[in-house]
Specification:
The complex is a heterodimer of chains A (296) and B (447). With 296 residues, chain A is of the alpha/beta class. Chain A is built from twelve helices and eleven strands. Chain A has helices at residues 17-22, 28-34, 49-54, 82-90, 101-105, 107-110, 147-158, 172-175, 186-190, 220-223, 269-281, 285-288; strands spanning 5-11, 35-39, 59-65, 76-77, 80-81, 93-99, 122-123, 126-127, 137-140, 256-257, 260-261. The chains are: A alpha/beta (296), B alpha+beta (447).
Chain lengths: 296, 447
């Protein structure tokens, strides 16, 4: 009988979106063959929560969903202040996995009170969240977390493999990509063809509709959501939900300076605007027309 | 008087049920929710369209519902400012398909992940259950996944897709998307036929008698048998007063049913109460959940309400036999799921892809001032978004969720729908199940 890793799933200030996203994992029986879910708030786990809390046994993964706070007026679980539960369990967990942007950076709910509501090790991009330091935390940001990001990280650790992390403690296998990679509108981006309006297959959403694909770290358009699509494929701008500053203000507007949009990640402004000017001058007829032209 | 406090687990979030006992019976109940996030506050001073992306974060299990309620509210803002937007039938159909996918997954998830294990626990209090050891759990999970994959062809993702926009939807699907979505839907139907109903969908939908459902072996008839065994055909009855404020393919307009009389309902009679909340009084309040009332009365919302106002024959028969008992409420979700599967199949077949997905407003959104109300039927019942906007910036945003209708807190003289259903029960186990029969969502309740 192969060894199974044990998981306790704990919810902070959350919408439960990460739990429900996890339930979209396509190969759940395979996942369950390697893991025991000792406790999950939404469905029956192997153990009773209070017995787990009172036990002194160690376990492998504490999965955190939701923003965290030491303020018991903001969050309680089981009629106990949340910090009591979290601190007790964290001390016995081999790894702490932050599932989603709330647990990683504070996310949407941090906006209400950034002093009191934070992620585990970060408050936005600043280091020092619920904990000042801890060396066993992995952030898998996203609003919500993609089920594959979570499962594949857990499986790698279960198999004893090293998971390389970026500066925000996110697995590089996922977060070295940009949401832009694999976007079906990439050619429009290359030749600077704007999407004239939402609701159409054609055009890039970067210039006028607030799309943050070129500056958001995530492989959404590589592995897709629900196995079939993504925000940009469904004609909606990337909201940058994997980044520490999510959600920024005016999500459907492109921030512009002197009517020029932000430059994509890692590219110098001057070079980019020069190149963009050249690209835009081409006026490629094919890209100005409907993708499927019914007249021909 | 004895008072007990128990944590309600395995709902969306967590609640505490404080029960007052007299002569071994529940004489009053307080339903308490302790976690608060403040989405309504977070939305203030933000550009109007941010609501489309942020209100779905109210709830991970009905995020599309919030997105759609939000877009309807925004479209009404345009109307109040003098521009009536035209939303094409194609966009309306896509919104409905997305919403149906969300309801279908909710109903399957709730029945197989919550109700069945809870019924086993009622029979055997030592039963713990372990989802990862049950074959049926994995089969249900697959069906849930397929349902959401069906919807994701149009919404990009679930949860937290942002596929709606004032004037329509953002996606522009191809015929191949429809065919693929259809394949997903057929897989869900196959699961429901084999496991949930034990017969073809068509046959199930042709029934008008509870006995017909109960005679065929299935997860549903097993659940009904168990509920009968433990008396849930008589327990959990409330006011028998139903409300469905959002539109549906099953009835015309928004309606209210009392006993068997169905009347027009109007959102203007909705009233939100802060009684007993921390918002009204930090010290004497005991919950973050507000309460919603219609003409100062508590009404039940959700699938049972929708089917009652729609005069659905099978549900009417269940209701004739068992009134609004816990059993009837549970069965309603299964019956609604069947109608939604059938309806979605028809929508996928009839949708006209040639129409434009979106007709953008002419009015510049940055200068928009006005207010709007968006009302839809979410998985758990009527959901209302009310926004006031000034020069394109949100001044106030108010959300009334289904759970606030069903699980608010009234007084002994005027208890809420769930409180009324709990009074008179003789054990916590039964109270736990009756409360769960409302498909509790604490994250929506407290936002």
């Amino acid at each position: 009988m192969p060894h199974k890793s044990s998981i306790i799933w704990l919810q902070g200030l959350t919408c439960n979106g990460n739990s429900h996203s996890f339930l979209n994992y396509a190969y759940m029986p395979s996942f369950a063959a390697s893991f025991d879910m000792l406790y999950h708030p939404l469905w029956c786990g192997a153990e009773d929560f209070m017995s787990l809390l009172r036990s002194d046994e160690t376990f492998d993964f504490l999965i955190l969903e939701g923003a965290l706070s030491h303020d018991e007026r903001l969050i309680q679980r089981f009629n106990l202040p949340f910090y009591e539960i979290l601190d007790t369990l964290a001390a016995r967990a081999k790894y702490i996995i932050c599932a989603g942007s709330c647990a990683s950076f504070g996310g949407v709910f941090r906006l209400r009170d950034p002093e009191k509501i934070t992620g585990a090790l970060f408050s936005g991009k600043e280091k020092g969240g619920y904990w000042l330091e801890r060396n066993n935390v992995i952030n898998i940001s996203g609003c919500p977390v993609h089920p594959r990001w979570l499962v594949e990280t857990l499986l790698a650790l279960h198999n004893g493999e090293k998971v390389l992390l970026d500066e925000f403690l996110r697995p590089k296998e996922v977060f070295s990509y940009l949401a832009h990679h694999g976007c079906l509108r990439n050619e429009y981006f290359e030749w600077k063809v704007d999407s004239k309006q939402l609701g159409q297959k054609e055009g890039c959403l970067f210039y006028d509709h607030g799309c943050l694909g070129p500056m958001s770290h995530a492989n959404c358009n590589k592995i897709l959501w629900n196995d079939v699509s993504s925000k940009t494929r469904a004609g909606s701008p990337c909201l940058g939900c994997t980044e520490f500053d999510f959600p920024r203000l005016a999500l459907y507007e492109t921030q512009k300076n002197m009517s020029l949009p932000q430059t994509p990640f890692g590219i110098s402004k001057r070079a980019y605007y020069t190149l963009a000017g050249v690209a835009k001058s081409f006026k490629i007829e094919r890209l100005e027309k409907k993708l499927i032209d019914e007249d021909n | 008087m004895k008072i007990t406090k128990e944590i309600i687990q395995r709902i969306e979030g967590e609640a505490t049920l404080e029960l007052e006992w007299e002569k071994e019976q529940v004489s009053f109940a307080k339903i308490k929710f302790f976690n608060y996030r403040g989405i309504e506050e977070i939305l203030k001073k933000r550009p109007l369209l941010d609501a489309l992306a942020l209100t779905p974060k109210v709830c991970g299990i009905c995020s599309h519902s919030h997105a759609i309620a939000s877009v309807l509210a925004i479209e009404e803002c345009f109307k109040s400012a003098g521009e009536s937007l035209h939303v094409n039938q194609k966009a309306k159909d896509i919104r409905e398909i997305a919403l149906n996918a969300e309801k279908i997954q909710n109903h399957i998830k709730w029945y197989f992940f919550t109700i069945l294990p809870e019924l086993k626990r009622v029979s055997d209090p030592t039963y713990k259950g372990n989802a990862f050891k049950e074959k049926q759990w994995f089969q249900a999970q697959r069906a849930i996944m397929d349902s959401l994959k069906m919807g994701a062809h149009f919404t990009g993702q679930w949860p937290h897709g942002s596929f709606v926009m004032a004037g329509g939807v953002t996606c522009d699907p191809l015929r191949s998307d429809l065919i693929s979505a259809h394949g997903c839907l057929d897989a869900v139907i196959a699961f429901c036929e084999e496991h949930f109903y034990g017969m073809s969908l068509e046959e199930f939908l042709s029934f008008d008698s509870a006995l017909q459902v109960m005679s065929v072996p299935s997860a549903l008839s097993f659940g009904i048998d168990e509920m009968l065994k433990h008396g849930f055909d008589r327990l959990g009855r409330s006011f028998d007063r139903f409300l469905a404020l959002g539109e549906s393919f099953m009835y015309e307009g928004s309606l209210k049913a009392s006993k068997t009389t169905v009347l027009g309902a109007d959102v203007k009679y909705v009233h939100e109460s802060l009684d007993h909340t921390f918002f009204a009084d930090k010290n004497s309040g005991y919950t973050y959940s507000k309460s919603a009332m219609y003409k100062k009365s508590f009404c039940e919302v959700g699938p049972l309400s929708r089917l009652m106002v729609a005069k659905e024959p099978l549900m009417r028969d269940f209701h004739r036999r068992f009134k609004d008992a816990a059993l009837t409420r549970v069965v309603a979700r299964a019956v609604e799921c069947a109608h939604l599967l059938w309806r979605t199949k028809a929508l996928l077949q009839s949708i006209d892809l040639k129409e434009a997905s979106l007709i953008p407003p002419k009015k510049e959104i940055h200068g928009l001032s006005g207010e709007g109300v968006g009302v839809i039927e979410a998985p758990r019942g009527s959901l209302i978004h009310h926004v006031v906007v000034h020069q394109g910036i949100i001044e106030s945003y108010d959300i009334i969720t289904p759970t606030v209708w069903n699980l608010g807190n009234g007084d002994k003289q005027n208890p809420s729908t769930a409180q009324k259903a709990l009074i008179g029960l003789n054990s916590f186990t039964k109270a736990d199940f009756v409360l769960k029969s409302f498909d509790v969502c604490s994250v929506c309740t407290t936002q």
